[in-house]
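2 proteins. here.
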Amino acid sequence: MLDINYIRQNPDEVVAMLHQRQLASEEPKVAQLLDFDRERKGLVQRSDDLKALRNKVSKEIADIKKSGIGSSEELIGQMKSVSEEIAGMNGLLAALEEQIESILLELPNKLHPSVPSGRSADDNQLFGEPVSFPYTFDFPVKNHLELGKALKILDFERGAKVCGAGFPVYMGKGARLERALINFMLDCHTERHGYTEVFPPFFVNRESLRGTGQWPKFADQVYHMEEDDLYAIPTAEVPVTNLHRGEMLDVRALPICYAAYSACFRREAGSYGKDTRGFLRVHQFNKVEMVKFTRPEESYEALEKIRSNAEAILTALKIPYRVLLLCSGDISANATKCYDIEVWSPAEQKYLEASSCSNFEDYQARRANIRFKPESNAKPEFVHTLNGSGLATSRLMVSMLEHYQTAEGSVMVPEVLRHYTRFDEITQAAE
């Protein structure tokens, strides 16, 4: 959530940001917000004046009663009217506060100056050079669906029977390979990169979604259980960030770095007509998430570390990938700056997103009220929050299966995972 003081002082910057994000249609909300804010300020001033008057006259009434000289009935009647007017203003103020907050919750975050201008994903910029490894295929390349079916390690048909399309089932060595991948990533982030492991709930309340920015703007992407008013998490970012909602963090503990595995659930509303085969678009997938809470002056250095931590996983797995710096028209509403990491699919002949690494500055912390004191006697400040996929396994599994396939139709296990799988190869004899 943007600071209302920032919007008051820089309305033109906010409008320019909306245009950069290709959200010119949202511009009227800024003027409406400022109108509501001015109206609120006037009501607050009038209410404060009336309260001051009531306090003054109440003292006069007390003096009259104490002295026993004169009547206070007329003044008491006047103050009754004043109190009724104050109560009416309180109701108007509450309604205005609700309208102001509603707009603030929908306005996107500021953009970092390094974010390139652009209209869509076509304008994202390559960050560095694509990373490749020496894979050669002198045989017809099978896609992950063909490999999964032939090796009996993936079963999308039975997943659809049980739950519907977009809910994959891992079988036999496929299930073990998925578990190995998750364990490897968690071990890497905790033992090498300094994160503390968290195993969060997979369901959250509405306040948690509000804290990280999925509510109300992206509510249609989230599965909701009405009876309990709980939501299936779209990413571990939501429960992990909200662990510190409403807290004053110890500055000596910053940065706080968490790594968490979770299943992720997304309705993917509006994705109809897109390529939905296999893991290319699913409603449930597994992901290891990195979340950081930092001092404001350290957050962009922390973003680069998160990105490099995610890249380290792909380097260890020897999966070809590239990094994109997202442009203003493609970056998420919550982020000030974001990198996407995409893995190469030799069967699809295209890159597939496997990670997003974002800095939100104080946008989430303001919504979730997560603060710290730079010094013991200093005014509290909002922390900066960051997160990055480290990584999502679904698209990564696509690239891994396809790159490690052999001419005989088997799939070799990446060397760094063999400690976890206890096997080196998945053959057609897999159970």
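next one coming up
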Amino acid sequence: MEFEHYEKGTGWYLTLAVIGFMMIAYQIYLHDYFAVITILVILLAIYFFSKQLPGEVDVVITNKAVTVGNVAFPYTTIKRFWIVDKNHSKKLILETTAYLNRYIILLLNDVNPEEVADILKEFLPESEPNQETMAQRLARKLRF
């Protein structure tokens, strides 16, 4: 799976709309119309991304790289890895040397995380403590 999908009910969308309306109303009060347009664009993006369903992605671990779909991440570009196993959600997190896409997060679904860790330990250091990034925790709490 590309990402974790959370079902969002009417309350989630109503909360988004109310917060968005309050932010827009405040920016209109300040006569900052560029901010109004920016907030509208951000709200529309959040709405459309919330409706998106995850697709299946093939992940292959070889002796040279971790391949996610059509993109290969050679071990020379991966600093370390760790596995998070919380709340019925198992994730493999790879920290890369890239500046913008620093973390690659892969859902393990039905795969045994210990087996994945044993394979990757041959090529990469495992990081401790095994925890989610701050952005992951925030996204999970917001159900996004």
